[in-house]
Amino acid sequence: MKTNRRDFLKAAAGSAATAGVLTLAPSYAVASDEGEPFAKDTMVKFYDSTVCIGCQACVVACYETNFVNRADNLNKPKEERNFIENNDVIPVLAEEDQFNPQAPWIRVNGLDYRLRTIIRKYVDENEKSHFIKQNCMHCKKPGCVSACPVSALQKDKDDGVVTYDPNRCIGCRYCQMACPFNIPAFEWHRANPKITKCDMCRSTINLKTNDFDIDAEGNAVYKDNPKKGTACTKVCPTGAVLYGRREDMLALAHDRINKSKEKGENKYYEDTARGESVLGEKVYGGTGELVISAVDFRKLDFPVDKIGDRATAYKSEGIQHTIYKYGIAPIALFAALSIVVRKNVKKHHEHEED
């Protein structure tokens, strides 16, 4: 059977219309957890800036655990391994340099590919130093996870840790652009670059277990190995950073704030405008890193006003899922194609009549 141009165009128009109708069938969007509480066993790190002395023990321990002592590093030829003693990212400071704003460890540009956590310093108008530990916030609704096209970043549904699989990563840097806290660090120097971020030591010492007790300081103590824990929390000499269930750490944070008020010290900053005295309780929908401080969070490089209390991933995913759930995008496409085809058919018909 011979098909002329008119029949072909009519068939194409009919197919487009049929496809457009078929897209009205319901599709399945990813369910949103907005408004739901954190999982019961969500694990977090709690950082009290007022007791941090800026010693960098946490930075060194993190680097040793996640870079120096990793099997893939130890299996390299000796001259290619990462070593603290010949790596300038963690310099040993003289006592007189510890509170010097010009000291080399004050990393103005924040995290880089060699470190999963750093200590930064803010000097107030009275020349008093305040420290802040910077690392992945393990958000309840991570923008990085939502943006990653290959699921290299995922959020554990049980303990809330945002994990990273470098074997899946394609180096697109979408996670960098999606993170409101500017955390993922990129390996600019590599031909096949990946990112670096804290995973609460999941990739090295596997903390995923609920078999632990809480000690007097509030830290999680594992029954199978009391020395197990995130590298940074196990070495902090002042207890500035602790690791445990989110509800326990949040209660501990508020307890410290309330006791300070009762004593008339009022040493902790409270963001009354936003109603958040513990950073991470509300900002960006809640995070897996809780922080209390003596100074405004904004001065510690947390742009809370810009970030807001709602994760942007809820909005972006809501738009995407709505578009595809109701077939808006396919319908619009097929409608446009139908109009083009219809015009072509009409022109062809008029041409034949002439």
**Would you tell me the overall average pLDDT?**
76
Structural class: alpha+beta
Basic shape? elongated
Q: What is the number of helical segments per DSSP (H or I, 4+ residues)?
A: 11
Instruction: Give the CATH level 1 class of the largest domain.
Output: Alpha Beta
Strand order of the largest sheet: 10-1-11
Give the amount of beta strand, in percent.
Answer: 5-15%
> What's the number of structural domains?
2
Pfam families: Fer4_11
Keywords: 4Fe-4S, Iron, Iron-sulfur, Metal-binding, Repeat
GO molecular function: 4 iron, 4 sulfur cluster binding; metal ion binding
Subcellular location: Cell envelope
Structure in words:
Its main location: other. InterPro entries: 4Fe4S_Fe-S-bd, 4Fe4S_Fe_S_CS, FDH_Electron_Transfer_Unit, TAT_signal, TAT_signal_bac_arc. Keywords: 4Fe-4S, Iron, Iron-sulfur, Metal-binding, Repeat. This protein is an alpha+beta fold. The protein folds into two domains: 5-32 and 314-353; 43-311, Alpha-Beta Plaits, CATH 3.30.70. The protein contains eleven helices and eleven strands. Strand 4 and strand 5 form a beta hairpin. Helix 1 (5-22) runs antiparallel to helix 11 (328-353). Mean pLDDT is 76; it is low at 16-31 and 81-109.
